[in-house]
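Please review this pair:
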Amino acid sequence: MGFVYLFVGFVMIQRVIEVIIANQNARWIKKQGGYEAGGEHYKYIVALHAFFFVALLIEISFFGPEVLRWSLIPLIVFLIAQVGRVWALSSLGRFWNTRIMILPGAKVVAKGPYRFMRHPNYVIVAMEILALPFIFQAYWTAFIFSILNVIVLRVRIREEESALKEATNYEEVFKDRGRFVPSYDE
């Protein structure tokens, strides 16, 4: 049981570090003349992710984690998502953020996984929200928070794409790329 809490705690620490990096990046973008768009929904994203970990820990504690042989499958999916997360975040560099930060006139990043789709980081987050609870048979957490994530992302992506289209070359760069499914330039 201690390993389970260590594993989940490690993921939570990762997220806190990411928020720190995001805040540093936001300050940098603002110093360059950028601004935040769609901030009204950000509190719901924060709440979703915070309550995800609370629900996960409660469900694990209440039902007791049972790491089964097939738990290796969601663990592998989760670990692949972690590699994808690092790839996506490092590809965006200072432009990566948990908020929608816009730098007018900037050229959107179209390298790394962004060469293939518009929103690889959201695909990765969806994989994590589904896979992490499945590792420990926390099915309710996986189900409920996957649905809530889709609802929040519908608002988030609409706001993000609108702001990027207005202030950057987003539409030109990503017009032929799928949102969540890879597509390749010929």
Remarks:
- Residues 130 and 142 are 5 Å apart (CA to CA).
- The chain has six helices and two strands.
- The chain has one domain: 2-174.
- The chain has a mean pLDDT of 91.
